[in-house]
TrEMBL record:
Entry EC number(s): 1.4.3.3
Species classification: Bacteria, Pseudomonadati, Pseudomonadota, Alphaproteobacteria, Caulobacterales
Name of a matching Pfam family: DAO
GO process terms (BP): D-amino acid catabolic process
Transmembrane parts of this sequence: none
Protein name as annotated: D-amino-acid oxidase
GO cellular component: cytoplasm
Length: 382
């Protein structure tokens, strides 16, 4: 597994440190129970589209007729992770005219966090959306803190994006942490393992292959050094993994079934209202009574705002039933696994960075799901 493979999972920060650090290797603690990979454990397969923009998420203000619209969409594979920080940026723009009432379009991760942030800033908020949890795309995410996963393109992001991104990431992590320990465990610290095998000393000369398309996703996590707690090598023999090298880092895991419900509850408790509404073009916003609107339509922004800078990056997740005592995550040879309370999610990141690029097919592929399970089986020692 190479550096770029790790980077595209958004897990590079703590995990790319050399595996041979002078520190003594940690033991896997408590002893890790292998995940049962029997197909009978599978209870569903879901597909989701990451709303990727080469320039990074669109967070800016625009006048549309008599409305002031603050866009807050296009967070790629980092929408949950960056949600609170992105909300802070968007709400700051929205509050410039001190509106008493404010509309949010969209009830996914970005819409709910923007709405709650606006309430905390003193606004009365109504969310207008055609779908709510559990039907929004945000409900089909892996649920790991991955703030720079497919969030921008190195060559296209504006020069100030890394600084804005760092601010969003730091704001977000503090707000996510405020949910740790809440009833229902919407956010938890978990141990995440990176499994690697040494690169072969010398590779046989490969026949000339055509250059593969490379989306060139930006890697920004180095800016967050020290933000996450412990990380270190683990003695592989203390784990059930077959890999020769194992590294462990603490990470935040989102139990999305509960987090979505809690965000909705927090919004309603603070006096928020939901209204079911679908918008077909920007002029439909004239139906709203609020003058200031935060637009959190995710991938839906591509159609609604005719914004072709939003590229779908498809991802499929195979869900296994939660397993007693299994409460960790790992990345191994293109497979990412996260054992959440609402299910064990298994995702295949494919052979290269282009996997899922510009693929808007949201139908689950059972053959690929079977192949994902087969790969998962090879992660553990016989
Ligand atoms: C496989 C996969 C795994 C992922 N894993 C992670 C992860 O582990 N961590 C992480 O941080 N991110 C992850 N992501 C990314 C994350 O899921 C997205 O960035 C995030 O869900 C986007 O949220 P959103 O609120 O912008 O969009 P959505 O969840 O799509 O919400 C959009 C809302 O707008 C509404 N809407 C849209 N169009 C209209 C319209 N025309 N009229 C009315 N309402 C409309 C929808 O009904 C919905 O309520 C993952 C993505 C995928 C595909």
């Amino acid at each position: 597994m190479d550096r770029r493979t790790l980077i595209r999972t958004g897990l590079a920060t703590a995990l790319l440190a050399p595996l041979t650090t002078p520190r003594m290797a940690l033991a896997a603690e408590p002893p890790l129970i292998p995940i049962r990979t029997d197909p009978a454990q599978v209870f569903r397969t879901t597909v989701c589209l990451r709303p990727f923009r080469a320039k990074g998420p669109r967070i800016e203000s625009e006048s549309v007729g008599r409305k002031q619209v603050i866009h807050n969409y296009g967070h790629g594979g980092s929408g949950w992770s960056l949600s609170w920080g992105s909300a802070a940026e968007a709400v700051w723009l929205a509050m410039q005219s001190s509106p008493r009432k404010l509309a949010v379009i969209g009830a996914g991760a970005l819409g709910l966090t923007a709405a709650i942030t606006a309430q905390r800033a003193g606004a009365e908020v109504t969310i207008y959306a055609k779908e709510r949890f559990p039907f929004v795309r945000s409900a089909r995410a892996t649920g790991i803190w991955s703030p720079d996963s497919r969030v921008a393109q190195t060559t296209a992001m504006p020069a100030d994006f890394p600084v804005r991104w760092e601010r969003m990431a730091r704001t977000s992590v503090a707000l996510h942490e405020s949910y740790v320990g809440s009833a229902g465990n919407p956010v938890e610290w978990i141990d995440y393992y990176i499994l690697r095998d040494p690169e072969p000393e010398s590779l046989p000369t490969a026949p000339e292959a055509p250059e593969a398309f490379d989306p060139g996703f930006a890697s920004l996590n180095d800016r967050l050094q020290g933000l996450m707690p412990h990380s270190g090598p683990v003695a592989p023999e203390t784990t059930p993994f077959a890999a020769a090298q194992v590294r462990r880092a603490a990470n935040l895991s989102f139990n999305i079934a509960d987090y979505g419900r809690q965000l909705e509850a927090d919004f309603l408790l603070a006096g928020g209202r939901f209204e079911h509404m679908e918008f077909h073009e920007p002029s439909d916003l004239s139906r709203l009574k609020e003058k200031v609107v935060i637009n959190c339509t995710g991938y839906g922004a591509r159609a609604l705002w005719r914004d072709e800078s939003v590229i779908p990056v498809r991802g499929q997740i195979v869900w296994l039933t939660p397993q007693e005592g299994v409460h960790y995550g790992f990345y191994s040879h293109g497979i990412g696994v996260l054992a959440r309370r609402d299910g064990i999610v298994v995702q295949d990141f494919g052979p290269d960075e282009a996997f899922g690029w510009n693929d808007a097919n949201e139908t689950a592929d059972p053959v690929a799901a079977q192949a994902t399970l087969e790969k998962l089986k090879t992660v553990y020692r016989a």
